UniProtKB/TrEMBL annotation:
Residues 5-155 form the NADPH-dependent FMN reductase-like domain. GO terms for molecular function: oxidoreductase activity. It comes from the Bacteria. InterPro entries: CE1759_FMN_reduct, Flavoprotein-like_sf, FMN_Rdtase-like_dom, NAD(P)H-dep_FMN_reductase. This is FMN reductase. Pfam families: FMN_red.
Length: 205
């Protein structure tokens, strides 16, 4: 099977978190959708709450420390991204925005992204369209048509709300899987590819 890398960015602050729960469900559905297309997914989850201080340090120093760098590399080298945030004051969280602020400019160009958000009430659902989608458009990513919002009433039970959430998750996962499977796998550039050999250095080349 072909291989693709999926980076999952979860900006939930609590443990457990409805944001992480939504991220996990989107990930499971995407992995299954990719497998149906003959693609095996390697998943890496980035919990932003674990990097809050690292992100603040990056803002004031301009450099990612040793703890933050692997998370940034996982996102910039991914074949697809699942990005989920809680909604605060009708927009994505500050932690979520800070993470994407420190991602290298242009590093996500063309990368497929599935957006998700959680909040206590469905009144915040438009944050996906008026806040998150413009952010990822600015980063020049390719965002799935379907974004997934989950309010408190969407969780649990077997009612219409729960069924609707499951349906949106499946639809969004299929869209992301289609975009990821259609792209060539991302390649990690060798930073030493153009370095002269040891023999060449000895010859003074």
């Amino acid at each position: 099977m072909e291989q693709r890398r999926i980076a999952v960015v979860s900006a939930g602050l609590s443990v457990p978190s409805s944001t992480r729960l939504l991220a996990d469900r989107l990930t499971s559905a995407t992995v299954a959708a990719l497998r149906r297309r003959g693609v095996e997914a390697e998943v890496e989850v980035i919990e932003l709450r674990e990097h809050a201080r690292d992100l603040a340090d990056n803002l004031v120093t301009g450099f990612a420390n040793a703890e933050l760098r692997p998370a940034l590399d996982a996102v910039t080298r991914a074949d697809g991204i699942i990005a989920v945030t809680p909604v605060f004051s009708a927009s994505y969280s500050g932690l979520f925005k800070t993470f994407f602020d420190v991602v290298d400019s242009g590093a996500l160009t063309g990368t497929p992204v599935l957006m998700g958000a959680t909040a206590g009430t469905a009144r915040h659902s438009l944050a996906l369209e008026h806040a998150m989608r413009p952010l990822f458009a600015y980063l020049r990513t390719v965002v799935t048509p379907t974004a997934v919002f989950a309010a408190s009433e969407d969780w649990g039970g077997a009612g219409e709300a729960s069924h609707g959430l499951a349906s949106r998750i499946e639809r969004a996962a299929e869209e992301l899987a289609e975009l990821v499977a259609a792209r060539p796998a991302a390649r990690t550039a060798d930073p030493f590819a153009d370095a002269p050999s040891f023999e060449a250095l000895l010859r003074g080349v």
